[in-house]
Amino acid sequence: METTRKTAKLIRQRIEEMPFGEPFTPTVLLACGTRTSVDQNLSRLVKAGVIERVTRGVFVRPEISRFVGRVMPEPLKVAETVAKATGAVVQVHGAEAARRLELTTQVPTQPVFVTSGPSKRVRVGEMEIRLQHVCQRKLALAGRPAGLALSAIWYLGKAEVTPALIEKIRRKLGANEFEVLKSATPSMPAWMSDAIFRNERTAFHA
Fold it and tell me: What is the pTM assigned to this prediction?
């Protein structure tokens, strides 16, 4: 009984140290007790309103806004949390990456992310988040601006990736981050690395 109470106290303390609105999975609490005891305590804390179940296997200390009430975590944070549980990498889908870099005005209708893990659909309230498996080289530089650019280039494809578009990306990224993008050229297909180096030659002769 004492062990059970101690486990419950440890789990509660760990959760109270977590930032509001930051999703987590039971695996981050396994140092506090067995998987069964962690799951049981999470269920109790959900019933008590201390945490919320975002989707299966993902929880959060709900962030409360005085304007809109409970605020659900951003789709990217949920996707990263789901992926991290299996050691997978996640990156913004190329369509959204292209929009963020102002390479297109199209707005994706559904949150989609590319991942090194298995493809899956995650239901969060009324919203569905899609995780789409892609090969590892499409995820190079994930989590940084150069990775966003790489994702956008893969999505736009050979026909649209001109030196002019690469120049626009270079201006958006800045010199240092563009150098990071260039560092990934060994893992790029020829058409992609050619477009980047054609831009370099143009900039050099300008």
Answer: 0.80
CB proximity list for 141: less than 8 A, separation 6 or greater:
147, 150, 180, 181, 184
157 plus 95 within the same structural domain:
yes
Residue 172, beta-bridge partner list: none
Q: Cα 57–59–63 angle (5° rounding)?
A: 160
DSSP state of 3: H
Give the end of a domain, one of 44, 71, 98. Answer: 71
Residue 44 token pair = 């109790």
pLDDT tens-digit map of 85-130: 888 999 999 999 999 999 988 888 889 999 999 999 998 888 899 9
CA-CA-CA-CA dihedral for 77, 79, 82, 87, to nearest 10 = -100
91 and 33 co-located in one domain:
no
